[in-house]
Design brief:
Blueprint (H helix, E strand, L loop, with lengths): L11 E7 L2 H13 L5 E4 L8 H6 L3 E6 L3 H14 L6
């Protein structure tokens, strides 16, 4: 993500681009545990069984309200650097 990507709702910002649904749920859980409202926006089309992931290169986005974006990115970065899971 090179620029501030917008989510599908008013004032929603993409804070993480997830490679798959599993990682998306881990990141969402991390944010929710810190009282940050986070939403998953899947880019998948169920009847096409993953073709969008192959085309776009990722499963979907984790989005938060704009006022939580900076804190969310800090938490995600710290989690990635902790080595607990691969979320890159």
């Amino acid at each position: 993500m090179t620029k501030e990507e917008r989510g599908q709702g008013e004032n929603l910002v993409v804070v993480f681009r997830a490679p798959d649904e599993y990682v998306a749920n881990i990141v969402r859980g991390l944010l929710v545990s810190e009282d940050i409202p986070a939403i998953l926006e899947s880019h998948q089309v169920p009847m096409y069984d993953g073709v969008m992931k192959m085309g776009e290169g990722y499963w979907g986005d984790v989005v938060v309200p704009e006022e939580y974006a900076e804190r969310s990115r800090e938490l995600i970065k710290a989690y990635q650097e902790s080595g607990e899971t691969e979320t890159e």
